[in-house]
Amino acid sequence: MIRWAYAGMAVLGAALMAPAAMAAGPVLHISSHLAKASRVSVDGRPAVSAPGYGSVNTPVAAGKHSLKVTSPGGVAYTGALTLAPSSLMHWHGRDYWCVNLLKDQLEPYSHDECQEEVTDAG
């Protein structure tokens, strides 16, 4: 009977850990050089809010993406972004790509720029 209780706890523990493991996938670190908070939608998903002169992370996979950026003061554009697995930056068990929001365009970060941005922010 005790063996079954331990087995049940192991299964329950694995089930509870599964969402945490899935949440650890790669993220896009969005750094804003805009004065006001911006809304950023990746591939039509619900938008995340990037604070003015701040940053936010959102889950993303490798591949080609479309980012729609809007912010008070007339900032409104859609930019294309290609994320290659070979350019992932690894830090503290997490994988990052980085992009900068400018007034009228996206600016993808190099691996080294991404490392500097993420390690300074976190």
Low-confidence stretches: 3-23
> What is the molecular shape?
globular
CATH homologous group name: Carboxypeptidase-like, regulatory domain
Oligomer: single chain
- CATH C-level: Mainly Beta
Predict the CATH topology: Immunoglobulin-like
Average pLDDT: 86
Range of strand content: 35-45%
CATH architecture verdict: Sandwich
Q: How would a crystallographer describe the biggest sheet?
A: 5 strands, mixed
Radius of gyration (Å): 18 Å
Give the domain tally: 1
Structural class: alpha+beta
Molecular structure report:
The chain has 2 helices and 9 strands. By secondary structure, it is of the alpha+beta class. It has one domain (26-121): Carboxypeptidase-like, regulatory domain (Immunoglobulin-like, Sandwich), CATH 2.60.40. The strands form 2 sheets. Strands 1, 4, 7, 8 and 9 form a 5-stranded mixed β-sheet that branches. A 4-stranded antiparallel β-sheet has the order 3-2-5-6, with no helix packed on it. β2 (38-42) and β3 form a beta hairpin. It starts with a helix and ends with a helix. Mean pLDDT is 86; it is low at 3-23.
Give me a quick take on this structure.
This protein has one domain: Immunoglobulin-like (Sandwich), CATH 2.60.40. It is built from 2 helices and 9 strands, in the order αβββββββββα.
What descriptors fit this protein?
globular; Immunoglobulin-like; four-stranded antiparallel β-sheet; alpha+beta; 122 residues; disordered N terminus
Sequence-ordered SSE layout with sheet pairings:
Blueprint: H1 2-23, E1 27-32, E2 38-42, E3 48-50, E4 55-59, E5 63-71, E6 75-83, E7 89-91, E8 94-101, E9 106-108, H2 111-121
Parallel strand pairs: 1-8
Antiparallel strand pairs: 1-4, 2-3, 2-5, 5-6, 7-8, 8-9
